[in-house]
Amino acid sequence: MAPLYCSYGYDVIALIGWQRQTRQARFGEIHHLLRESVQICEAQVRYLYHHQYLPLLACHERQRRDELQAVAERCGLILSLDGLAPEGGEPQLWAVRELQTGLTLRSGGLGLQDQATFAAFLQPIAEQGWPVTAILSDKQRGLEPAVAEVFPGACHAFCHTHYFQNAAATVADADETMKVSLRKSVRDAVGALIRCEGQPEQPGVLTVTGLLPSPVAAATVPREQSAQCDAPVAQAAEREAVVQDLLRRVRYLLTLKARPPFRLAGLEMFERLTEVMTCLATLIQHDADARLVQLRQGLHSALQTVRQDYSDLRQAADWLHRIADLLDPDQQPGRTGSAVRSDLFAYLDDLDQQTQDTPALRPFYTKIQDVSESYAKGLFYTYDLPALPRTNNDRESEFRDLNRRLLATTGQKGLVRRLIQRAGAWELIPRLPSLQATRLAISQVPLTDLRQEQQRVHTHRQRFRLHVRAAKQSQAQLQRLVQRWTALPAPGAP
């Protein structure tokens, strides 16, 4: 069977979609797979995916309204909202999912991210009359008043991950500054030493393989043969290996990257370099190699330059970890939202007293306090509503998975951005669990629904018809615009 006026059956359409979304195959690979049994060109494979498979998938998702209705009547809907980071002036992809069913209620591009736009995006959901119990978002600007306008009776919960990222902003900035300063101090003190990579094959050349590989080092000689080597030579080689390992360790630690709010690279660099110093002290006590002595002295002087900064940042980072423990439902199960709120602000009051006489710590506390007060009205619903998650990470994970999948099927980051703008709303709709289920589901979509969805796809993609870079194609498009414009009657013409 096939959709009306389509030359290819549902089995071909389902196979194309399954290979593309599940196997992450490129259109050329899918064409190669099909051409042994089906007369089809690569352009037709691409067309069937974008204009048949994706619209059919969206229509199938829409047929599950009864399931959504039942959940709404039983306990109310719990919605999750999130969007991709905007691409300089281009529409931003947003999605609204119902968390208990996983259904996509709305998915599409928003040209603006203000209250009026968000309200217009959410209003069709409110018009269905479904009870909405709670909404989870990242507290984006403009979204909070829009939710209050469209769903005045719903709890608007805020993502805990974004709360911590904002609360830790001042700490993270200070940590990055300390990291840069410490790295510079280490390089000034022992840069020439740690840049030296042992005894390479040639300057700048490390281990090489291929038809002309690097010579095998003595350390890789089998044990039974190494016993025959001269003992002083073997000991010198082992001593050199230990020194080089320590130098590589220091070199690596200078490249650490932060992942706020809890992975702070400056703190980690200071602590790991301190561990290296402790190790060096033990080694030097046994054998005071000149390079080890130089390395330890250099690290000691570098660490001293930021020791006070480290002490302050370590204390502020410990505050964040303590707050994370307070908000973790597994630490003290069974607490209500009001109890968690009381615990958090009692701890913040303690910090207020602790930092009264410590000006260096006061900015860190002030930021945490301000963000906590800003997020307080949406931070604690999750403890009273078991179905409401603490974070919006699942939505962000879907966006990351979409990016990874499209990158795997195209190999071009620029093309991924264009595909998300043109078809991201349809690509976000979850695929079915198997090829057979996909074939069965899309074959049951009414023709009228498919035609309407194809028109939506066409209307959306038409917005990007002038987004081309090829000079010849661009000139042809502009010429057609000129022809269309000059075909119009001039103003005032009879």
Describe this structure in words.
The protein has 494 residues and is an alpha/beta fold. Among the domains are: 10-62 and 396-482, no CATH class; 66-159, Ribonuclease H-like superfamily/Ribonuclease H (Nucleotidyltransferase, domain 5, 2-Layer Sandwich); 165-169 and 312-383. 60% of the residues lie in helices and 6% in strands. The chain is built from 20 helices and five strands. The chain has helices spanning 10-21, 27-34, 42-62, 65-75, 115-126, 143-150, 160-167, 169-195, 223-226, 231-253, 265-286, 290-304, 307-327, 337-354, 362-375, 393-410, 413-427, 435-442, 447-462, 471-486; strands at residues 77-83, 92-98, 104-110, 132-137, 155-158. A five-stranded mixed β-sheet has the order 3-2-1-4-5, sandwiched between helices. A hairpin with an 8-residue loop joins strand 1 and strand 2. Helix 5 runs parallel beside helix 6 and helix 14 packs antiparallel against helix 15 (362-375). The longest helix is centred in the middle third of the chain and has 27 residues, at 169-195. The protein starts with 9 loop residues before the first helix and ends in an 8-residue tail after the last helix. The model has no long low-confidence stretch (mean pLDDT 90).
